[in-house]
Design brief:
The structure is a single chain. The protein contains nine helices and six strands, in the order αααααβαβββαβαβα. It is α/β, with parallel strands linked by helices. It has three domains: 55 residues, no CATH class; 33 residues, no CATH class; 132 residues, Type I PLP-dependent aspartate aminotransferase-like (Major domain) (Aspartate Aminotransferase, domain 2, 3-Layer(aba) Sandwich), CATH 3.40.640.10. Strands 2-1-5-6 form a four-stranded parallel beta sheet, with helices on one face. Helix 5 packs parallel to helix 6. The protein is globular and about 55 Å long.
C-alpha cells in the first residue's frame, strides 16, 4: 500500500495514541507509527492465535529461534558476527535502554547523549536517576556532525555510559565508520559502556550504509 492510498477517516477510527491524542484539525505524522497495513504473515499468525485463544505465556526466548534468526540477519546485512547465546529479547527499545541504564550505571552517574534526540533517551536517564550529559550535534558542511572535543570535555569521572542513536533520530544521520571509530575510541579511553539504539538500521539509503558500532572490533563489542 502506498502512503497516498491511506484513508484518513479510517485512520481516525483507530484507538492508539497517535489518532486519539490530537483534535481533528491536526494531522499527526509520527515517523514510528506509519499507519501501513499489518504485513500478511504477521496478520496470519495473529489470526491463528486469536482463533484458538492462544494467549498464554510465551515459550522462553531461547526456544523461539529469534536469537538465531537475528544473528544470521545482521551477519548477512552488516557483516556483524554475534553469538545467538548473547542475544536477549525485549518488548521495545525504550525498555532495553532502561534496563541498560540500571545495569551499567548508578544513581547520579553521567550518560552521554547527542542532542537533538528521541525524547525517551533523556526521559529514561531521569526516570532511572542517571545524569544526562548533553552533547549537541553541530551543523557542518553536509549536515549534523559530532563535536568530539566538546564531548570529551563533557565527560568526567562519574560518566559511565555513551547512549548512542545510529541511525540518528531525529536528524537522520547515518554515522560513518570514521565517526563511529572516534566514538569507540572515546568510550574506550573513558571506560564508558555503550548502549546503541540501531532500530532504524534498515531505513538507510544509498550511498550510505549502516555500520553496527559493535561490529568495529571485539574490543568494542565487549563495551556494549
Amino acid at each position: 500500500m502506498a502512503i497516498d492510498e491511506l484513508d484518513i477517516e479510517q485512520l481516525r477510527l483507530r484507538a492508539g495514541e497517535k489518532w486519539t491524542h490530537y483534535p481533528s484539525d491536526i494531522l499527526p505524522s509520527w515517523v514510528a507509527d506509519m499507519d501501513f497495513e499489518i504485513a500478511l504473515p504477521i496478520r496470519t499468525a495473529l489470526e491463528r492465535r486469536i482463533a484458538s485463544s492462544d494467549c498464554g505465556y510465551p515459550v522462553p526466548a531461547t526456544e523461539t529461534g529469534l536469537p538465531e534468526i537475528f544473528s544470521a540477519r545482521v551477519q548477512q546485512r552488516f557483516g556483524w558476527d554475534i553469538s545467538p547465546g548473547s542475544i536477549d529479547l525485549f518488548n521495545d527499545v525504550v525498555q532495553a535502554i532502561h534496563f541498560g541504564l540500571l545495569a551499567l550505571a548508578s544513581d547520579g552517574d553521567g550518560v552521554v547523549i547527542q542532542t537533538p534526540i528521541y525524547p525517551p533517551f533523556i526521559e529514561a536517564t531521569e526516570v532511572t536517576q542517571r545524569r544526562p550529559v548533553l552533547c549537541p550535534l553541530v551543523t557542518g558542511r553536509s549536515g549534523y556532525e559530532i563535536d568530539f572535543d566538546q564531548m570529551q570535555n563533557s565527560i568526567d569521572a562519574s560518566t559511565r555510559i555513551l547512549l548512542l542513536c545510529n541511525p540518528h533520530n531525529p536528524t537522520g544521520r547515518c554515522f560513518t565508520r570514521q565517526e563511529l571509530e572516534g566514538l569507540a575510541e572515546l568510550a574506550l579511553a573513558n571506560d564508558l559502556s555503550i548502549i546503541s539504539d540501531e532500530i532504524h538500521a534498515d531505513l538507510v539509503f544509498s550511498p550510505h550504509s549502516h555500520i553496527p558500532i559493535a561490529s568495529l572490533s571485539p574490543e568494542i563489542q565487549s563495551e556494549l
